[in-house]
Amino acid sequence: MARGSRTDLAVLGALSIAPMTGYAVRAGIQDVLGHFWSESYGQIYPTLARLEADGCVERRAGERPRSSVYALTDSGGVRLRELLAAPDEPTPPRNGLLLRLFFGHVLGAEEVARLVSVQRDRAVAQLAELAVARAEIDPSEEHGPFALLTVSAGEHSARAAIAWADEALAVLVEIVADGDRLTTRHRPASADAP
């Protein structure tokens, strides 16, 4: 699925919950989906305009002057279901920490350990944020069970990131203790090991 189709999916999905302004669409995507998806204002408004031109959303006057509220149309609902049913194409990951880790020999183990610690702290904070999100979801609402499954995926990812960071920090502490010299005992446990 192309980037534009993914943006369409995020915007139409947000509007499937309730009609809202472009600002509210962006805030909803950031606040609710922000743990696994992001969109910029520069993507939201052109997407809303195109979806309106395509008949997938309709614009209504908002409560404030010059504000507009967008609502999903019947054809927008059909388009949303098509996008949801389409297989997702994997996108190459872009992970700045892993890029730095790969070239860690240039930075040195102590600096890499600092970067890993920062990432671990972020994962701990994300786990706390997801606990708050979990508490705010009403499982009896139509989208509640699906939102809870999404939160669960985020929780598993955060826990995995913490476990990996702990393993990496243990290896990096050994490397620092050995004066940044790598030895065979610095090999982290393999994911394939029994």
Please explain how this structure is put together.
This protein folds into two domains: 83 residues, Orthogonal Bundle (Arc Repressor Mutant, subunit A); 91 residues. Strand 1 and strand 2 form a beta hairpin. It is elongated and about 65 Å long. The protein is mainly alpha-helical. A two-stranded antiparallel ribbon has the order 1-2. The protein is 64% helix and 5% strand.
Annotate the secondary structure layout:
Blueprint: H1 3-17, H2 22-32, H3 41-53, E1 57-61, E2 68-72, H4 74-85, H5 96-102, H6 104-107, H7 109-136, H8 144-177
Antiparallel strand pairs: 1-2
Helix pairs in contact: 1-2, 1-3, 1-4, 2-3, 7-8
| SSE ordering | HHHEEHHHHH
- The helix content is 55-70%
Q: Biggest β-sheet: count, sense, barrel?
A: 2 strands, antiparallel
Major sheet: order of its strands? 1-2
Count up the helices: 8
Decide which structural class fits the backbone.
mainly alpha
**Proportion in β-strands:** 5-15%
| Uncertain stretches | none
